[in-house]
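Hi there,

I know you've been waiting on this one. I reran it after we fixed the sequence typo, so this is the corrected version. Both the input and the resulting structure follow.
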Amino acid sequence: GLEEGAKNQFSTFSNFITTINQKKEGIGNRNSPTQPVIPNIKNGKDLPPLCLDVRQKQRMSVDALPQELKAPVPPEPSLPIRTKTVKDFQDDMEKSKASGDWKAVHNFYSTTFDSFLEINAAFKKDTNSPFNTIEDSGIDAKFVNVVYDALLNTPQDVQKSVLKGIINGLLQEWTGPRTKDDLRAYCILLQNPQFSNTSTYVIYAHLLRQIAALTEADHHFLVHWSKKISQKRFKQVVDRLLQFISLRLFPAKPEEFPPMVKCTWWIPSATKVLALFNAANSLISPPIISYTDFYNSTLDHIDLMEEYHNWQCYGNSHRFSFCQYPFIISIAAKKVIIQRDSEQQMISIARQSLVDKVSRRQKPDMNMLFLNVKVRRTHLVSDSLDELARKKADLKKKLKVTFVGEAGLDMGGLTKEWFLLLIRQIFHPDYGMFTYHKDSQCHWFSSFKCDNYSEFRLVGALMGLAVYNSITLDIRFPPCCYKKLLSPPIVPCDHNTLVGICGVTLDDLFQIMPELAHGLSELLSYEGNVEEDFYSTFQVFQEEFGVIKSYNLKPNGDKIPVTNRNRKEYVQLYVDFLLNKSIYKQFAAFYYGFHSVCASYALLLLRPEEVEILVCGSPELDMSALQRSTQYEGYQKTDLTIRYFWDVVLGFSLDLQKKLLHFATGSDRVPVGGMADLNFKISKSETSTNWLPVAHTCFNQLCLPPYKNKKELKQKLIIGISNAEGFGLE
């Protein structure tokens, strides 16, 4: 960290920067307090389309730009000659540490960071080469890393000289478009570890402001250059930006920062720069860091619905909203937005039903406020289908389930049981709607043609109802399914528009049919003569009810041989046929069923992986968290049996822990809110200790006999969770 004396000096720098910028801003456009205002930027339309505009109903991507944008390229000024190498710098550092004389190191840092030209002179791999393509930034990453790693171990006057030089660079008068050397300097300065310290935030904010206001073409270069940064440095920059946003929202020491009214542009600027790194992360497969590393959990504590409504009302206009940049909002926060949006829709529809009743002078009935589903256990699927089809207008009301002939009141248990029984029956292999692939342990849509696809619509509606009513389902769909479910995320007004069609790759097929995908991969890498050795055409064959049927992958495909030259096209068409075309009607019905319940602009905020977590829960188990949140009935948490139980469970392998969770709750996955949202309960079973444990999955309840010792409890528990299926032993 930097000492108090340094802070005072930075405060002086800050005032200087503020004064200069206030003079410049007086000339510029001040229509929007949240829009970064930079000299020579004519209007806000040059900002990158890296955020979601609710009015456009689509996701935008930096990668949609052409490989090389034909923007005017300003001439690069000649760079000073600097010959210091990594070894020279390291030698200077060692001598300074040994002698205490930091003059050589001080001179290097103060010279290198004095201007954008000097930064390039020091860190550009070859000062004579332009490096003006997206493939190579021309930055000597090793030298940059060594210099920054050493910086925080130097005396304060050295660190202050770096910041003073950065201020000089930021105050430079810009007379035209940025050069590639300028972009290189921005890329290098973003990696400065000094910006982790709050005393440097005024300088950091101005750096972010200038980067955020660059043209779309310049952002394109920064995105592609950023993806070449090492994982460690990339994560550090992202964490620094997230910390900057968090501390500006909730400062530990408010006196450290200017008043919020004077720096409303801080958070929008940082978020826009973070969007560039998110775009860079999305360009690589696998990504540099997980998409969850962009989550800012601080946003869980702000008024999310105000953010959501601002976004709905203003889109990408002058009013900033975090919903324009959904990658920064955690899945827990998105769930809150979706739930509250759902609740508001439920209340609105229930209120309208009440008004309609009163206007017709009919007596109001409490049942009109709910989606009441009455089914017979013996006709579960057909009754459910009929009920949901008849009550389309009520799908957004709170769900209540009644089993005909049973006196139970639905306090949540019957709803969960209805979901469990219905999912188990629909996904049974004998039912024929879905095919279970053992290699990938997931279900996929059957391609068999039929006259009525209403049952696929039912499954989609079930998934929608589960999200809407916060029920976790034990469904095993591959990630590709959720990608298709958001294609597009808003149901198109034109019913002729194709839905559920997305770009699919061999990687998507690997997640469903790994053996077939491996065979196609072998075809792509085959070194012999594909046409003579494989003797294949652009035609596929499928068995349907015992009959082999053929389908052309392209017009006259049966007459076009697969060769070394066209095999990539063949594989792509084959994958597209399997995952899109052959199941189009089935998936379209499924898509419309899901969106009939979940139609909301909130879906625009979600990634496919996040939809899966909302539907099925998270696979990450934390049994210690479950222990802390468990409730007891007939037991105390200090009882010997309970202590035995947790000793055994915490010592289980992950596989056994999943089996226990599945045994007790009907799913081996965790709700978005974590283990605490399970409301897990252990009840005392007044039966013989010879009996196995019993579970009531509808209530997430485990009934545990008072076993005499840990060995007996472990033996009985493993037998129970390893052999139970549904509501009885196999």
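Quick highlight: The chain has a mean pLDDT of 85.

Best,
R. S.
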